[in-house]
């Protein structure tokens, strides 16, 4: 089951190492209290999380810009729960969400253990579609920045995963060969198929245990990486 010949291990960040949903929920709880937004947090999140994923897909596909993503995911969610929020409030929440998001830094279970296990054996890197200023803060504030030799984000490159340009850029930056590199991430389209498409190995972090018919290497928790690497 071990994958032979790997030298460089590339990770996605959100939903792979950094527990986005947990940190996001804590952020919304904080900013709703700050702005006296009287909504049921669990109800809000039950709609926001799938809406957010849909908007990120549009963002990956270059169909919307950053500002549209940040505004519309909130506006659509408030409409779903029939809460009246004017554009001024949504703009304030959008700004404060980004400002406070990295003040919460929960990682997935076993993240530190696995990174400590991998670091002596491989060169570790990040490839993320997240926004540059936010991703840097996540890495530093969660005290995992030092594990990684490089961080490549979509804003640096001008394209997003699964575009082959971002993978090739990340490889070239550290003089890595796709045949001796592997990508680990939670998104089949962006992380797994994107990496496989340029000749890298890949492991799907299926932490939600979604059923998939795709014949790809997959794990349900990070500790299982030790079976492959």
TrEMBL record:
Question: Which Pfam families does the UniProt entry name for this protein?
Answer: Hydrolase (PF00702)
Under the heading InterPro entries, the entry gives: HAD-like_sf, HAD-SF_hydro_IA, HAD-SF_hydro_IA_YjjG/PynA, HAD_sf, PGP-like_dom2, Pyrimidine_5'-ntase_YjjG
| GO MF annotations in UniProt | 5'-nucleotidase activity
PANTHER family, alphabetized = PTHR47478, PYRIMIDINE 5'-NUCLEOTIDASE YJJG (PTHR47478:SF1)
**UniProt-recorded name of the protein:** Noncanonical pyrimidine nucleotidase, YjjG family
Source organism of this protein record: Formosa maritima
